[in-house]
Predict the structure of Homoserine O-succinyltransferase.
Amino acid sequence: MPIRVPAELPAQAVLDKENIFVMDSERAAMQDIRPLEVGILNLMPNKIQTETQLCRLLSNTPLQINVDLIRIDNHVSKHTPEAHMDAFYHNFDDIAHKRYDGLIITGAPVALVAYEEISYWDKITTVMDWARRHVQSTLYLCWAAHAAMYHFHGINRQVREDKLFGVFEHQVNKPLDELVRGFDGRFYAPHSRYGYIPVEQYESVLGLDVLAGSEQTGAYIVASTDKRQVFLTGHPEYELHTLNDEYKRDINAGLETAVPVNYFAEPDNPESEPVMSWRSHGTLLYTNWLNYYVYQVTPYDLNDISSRV
């Protein structure tokens, strides 16, 4: 949240130079407060697990947030009871008239399928285009981050021979950007993906900044300078045992999946306990997104979003 100071306080000018948001008393007196409206388009197979992970991170704020869980159609989920979907999810067509402060589009289990061959690709692109008109800031996760880069900028992902799988160290590239405010210079985050886009291709797009990444993972956090789009290639929402569950799932399916790196207490020993090393950064990332990329810039009247594209 912003700090509130008297108007013309000398500290305000200093903090402004450091890109720290300061609200003077006059502005604070005029500010109206309302709940934030956030949608989650959940494309993951185990929807209950994913929605729980995301809601946990979204909850770490003093702001009230109204969350809409969204599905693109009535396709029956193999891993989530239909009663759950009927009770808690909105069809996209039923909420397409609404506007949101924030939207999260998750990854999807189609990592090795060409975009145009995905049965729901047209529906996904419809949602992406809709978000540019109806949402203040959209957070694209993992597969969705690459899909959005392809849809909006024509940059196709490349496919690794081996899955990038485990917990990796990253470096902050632009410490004054609000999205990485409070991050340590080096921090950890989980990845589980085959796709990647070289850093220089992100950097070639006018208006995109690579805020954090590493040599092993490439770009991790990429954001548009207008704060309307964030591309996140990893999974800071993962729980302690999520990577272990994915590893066992792959092994049971007969896949030659390597043990996730930097994850187990005893390296390369999947029988040892996993170690949580990314929770604080993941929580801070989502808090920063809600505060600086959503709350501080979203219009009070959500109908004004469409005029700001």
